[in-house]
Write a structure and sequence with these properties.
The chain is 37% helix and 18% strand. It starts with a helix and ends with a strand. With 334 residues, the chain is an alpha/beta fold. The structure holds manganese (II) ion. Manganese (II) ion binds next to loops.
Length: 334
């Protein structure tokens, strides 16, 4: 069932013990929104705990209260009267789903979220779940402290590519401006997130050399195998390196984290990559989406190129002939 902002605030107000979570493979919006909501609700004297069934990426380890995020142990339970799931539908939260039977309040901005078996507050126009949490804080009349503001700003900045992507709206800037008034220093946030070790830059350069173009340059892909991934355990920002290519509409990054498990990230300038991801069992936004394929890197690559090609044919971006005669152009031929 869909619930509006006011009803969402009411549900939060009337709960006392609240479990907050977000998706596995958490990004800045997942970490930022859970931490901010936790702080806002704790300021209202609620008993709140954040659990995420994954590690916090290195870029976000300096966020205020980040140590409060717990990872569920085997069979661990949390006695809650409300279970808040942020920035994803409730099927991507790993073991946290087994921690409580409390009713789910789902708060999200992903157009692919259908809100099954829960109350869903969906704002597809919001650039980030953090922008929705900002609105909820106002609805609750809660104070946004500097620490909560830092978390909210981080989620908004990362989901919009630092206010560059097409999801950046006037409301995003208004919220961001208020967060800066509350003490956020944007330069320090980007410094923290963009910081790389020399080893990471080396891995990035190796990844860049795997770049391939497809469909006359309309799609570009990067491939990070298990061995390369293990050297730094991050691919943050890699896809942006190829998204900029002038001919490219769809950019993708294929990462093999472990044997026969590949994570796919896609970005686009025009194409609806949420649709492509959905066909492969994933989801996301029109211009930023992803999925997981239980395949080898080579198998996953074939499936993905096929799906992107089919989509480009259906949307009249390439002809059936161009699809069938697709040539792979490698950067290493340079
Ligand atoms: Mn998000």
């Amino acid at each position: 069932m869909f619930v509006n902002l006011k009803e969402t605030a009411e549900k939060l107000k009337s709960a006392e013990n609240i479990l907050v979570t977000s998706h596995i493979n958490p990004d800045g919006d997942a970490i930022g929104s859970t931490l901010a909501l936790m702080q806002i609700l704790r300021s209202m004297k609620k008993n709140v705990q954040v659990y995420i069934d994954d590690n916090v990426p290195k870029s976000f380890l300096n966020l205020p209260c980040v140590d409060e995020i717990k990872r569920p142990a085997e069979n661990e339970k949390f006695s809650a009267d409300l279970f808040v799931v942020l920035d994803t539908s409730a099927d991507r939260i790993g073991k946290v789903s087994e921690m409580t039977d409390a009713p789910i309040l789902n708060i999200d901005h992903h157009v692919t979220n259908k809100g099954v078996d829960c109350d869903l507050h969906l704002e597809v126009e919001a650039a980030a779940t953090c922008e929705i949490i900002f609105n909820i804080a106002h609805e609750l009349g809660a104070e946004i402290t500097e620490n909560a503001a830092i978390c909210l700003y981080t989620g908004m900045a990362t989901d919009t590519g630092f206010f560059n992507y097409s999801n950046t709206k006037p409301s995003t800037f208004r919220a961001a401006a208020e967060l800066v008034e509350r003490g956020v220093q944007p330069n320090l946030i980007i410094e923290q997130i963009d910081k790389r070790t020399f080893q990471e830059v080396k891995v990035m350069s190796a990844a860049l050399r795997t770049t391939k173009l497809y469909f006359g340059g309309k799609a570009a892909g990067m491939f990070v195998d298990e061995e390369l991934y293990k050297k730094t355990n991050t691919t943050e920002g890699f896809i942006d390196l190829i998204r900029v290519i002038d001919t490219v509409d769809v950019a993708f990054l294929l990462t093999s984290h472990e044997k026969n498990i590949c994570r796919v990230s896609m970005r686009s300038k025009n194409a609806n990559v949420a649709e492509i991801a959905k066909r492969l069992g994933g989801g996301g936004h029109i211009r930023a989406a992803g999925c997981t394929l239980q395949k080898t890197l080579e198998e996953a690559k074939q499936i993905l190129i096929q799906a992107i090609g089919e989509y480009l044919v259906e949307t009249n971006n390439i002809s059936r002939e161009e699809f069938e005669n697709c040539e792979e152009i490698s950067i290493s031929n340079f």
